[in-house]
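Incident log, structure service

09:12 report received: a user says their structure output differs between two submissions of the same chain.
09:20 pulled the input from the user's history:
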Amino acid sequence: MIRSRAIAYVLMGLMLAGFAMPAQAQELLAEAPPFDVRHGAAHLETLFDIGVEDHFDDASRLYLGLLGSLDRNPASQERTILNRHMAQLALILPEDLRQQVMDGDLDTPPESWSFKPGAGERLFTWWRSQDPLPATRNNERLEEHLQRVAYAEEMYPHDDHPTGLDERGEVYVRFGEPRDKISVEYADRELGDIVFQPGVVVNLTDFPENEFWGYGHIDRAAYFIFVKKQGEYRTAESNDLLPDPLRSGFSAGARGRQKVDMMLATLRVIYRQLAPLHPDFLVRYSDVVDYSRGLEDGSLSSQAQAPYVFAESFLVRAQAEDDQAYGRRETFVPRQATEVLREKEGLPLAMRTARFLDDDGTTRTEIYWSPQPGGLMSEDRQDEKPVEGQVDQYIIKLTVVQKAGAYIERIVNVRHYQITDLPATREAVIPVQSMVVEGDTGRYHLAMQWDQHLPAGKDRVRDPERVRLGPHLKVATQRADSLMALTADEAVLEMSDLRLEFVPASAKQAGTFETAPYPFETVPSEMTLGLYFEVYHLAFDADDQTQYEVGYTVERGDDGGLLNFLGGRPDEQTTVETPYTGSDRTARESMLLDLSEWEGEGALNVTVRVTDTITGQQVERSLQFTMRR
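09:34 re-ran on a clean worker, output below:
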């Protein structure tokens, strides 16, 4: 039993990682006993206790095994275990996916939850889609999630919550360690002089335990205040940092004025500590300090609010501003954020893809890319800079993982590019590079990773595929999700994607129209652009000729503000149509875009529409770029 269960764990781990299993392995998995939820959960808790980061492989397999158990009808005790893991996972799941895998609102008791058929497989697919570094064999985002959960369960437990965490722990699972983290301290001389006096009803114990967490690296609106209430930390507002006795009872009388002075002193202490962490608190701190100073030296104008009015209105204002901050957080802050790539220096890079149909009916995808000007250089790496008399050399390793519809890994493509003779300038560029992957059908996904290295040795290497990689410098990742293979049905008119191209200056000078792919989003207005595309399954007429019409439309995109300012109309467009005749069912066409009449700058949409005039079938493709002057 132990051996068969171990086999099941290993095979399930391979399957969930995206590896295709041979028939014999699938038979072994079918014969193995079902995943034991209680055993798996206990083992996973043990790994959490001893350090999950040292056992990521085992922890990932166990965790995914637990999720896989959702697809059968788990017993009551098993469901309790799975509910805890699902509640933690729901913190980071897209809401539409959560609704696809479970019934019941997260605010309802877990006993009322139920899991929909196929829940486990949907979650496997989602986790595979979250892998941030496709060149590695691990899913670093899944590992990060497990590490965050293990830490949160240790540091921020709360057994009465479905997640087993207090609200700090739930935020930690979503975003990780905050960049700014403080507790507002009240043991301050100013409070000692004004608030903590004999006979005053406010004591130090009345001031709440609290924490401020800021995630400014994620979004300006991503910050949280937690206050301990009834034994647990809960998300709160800035007014909750005041003790209850200092939030009411203001009046024009002596006792009411004393409360105002105590409240203002407390606000100064609170906002003095919060102001450096977020601008939302800076203006409040300034206003409180200015009003307090005016009270002390008598410089308040006759139009100024009375102290008790100021105190009451300030609390109302703080409440309203906190409500607005909450709205911004809900609108602009993502549901989750990963730190996996933040520890690596990014390689700024432009990339476009284009699909083409091969003779065997499968789809090939061309990937063309280039680092942004100066992107290969780094100011803080002295070992990158060339010394006099030497040339720069870099090796860029590109890994492209082709994945089937459920993000199951199909083929891993790896290619090395040797970059030599790079000018020692901050705006150095290299020619556009390309890579082709083949054999896709149906729905597929591409995950790409570029790793920039120095060569291991100083000698020039002729074959970049045989070079030894030296220090790792930068990384870039991009995804092309949910691509659809082109149809191989010869009765259906089909068309490739548009490949955006440009005419190099050398070609212009030579009077030729040689082009090169253009991967960048922004296009200088003086650049000559072209489009390349292919048309498939054209019909023959009685004379074995194809007849088709190609029209292209250029129209302004959404960001028409600057165009309007410059006098352009955002709805204007240019359309050109041209008839063609051929002798092959596949047509390969190139055309130059005439943008000379377009004024201003901004987003442009280009649509090419092909009509088979024999069958009447029509197909079109579009792309977008931004023109700059």
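09:41 both user submissions now match this output. Likely a transient worker issue. Closing.
09:42 reviewer note: The domain at 489-629 is CATH 2.60.40.3880 (Immunoglobulin-like). Residues 1-12, 14-32, 381-391, 559-570 have pLDDT under 50 and may be disordered.
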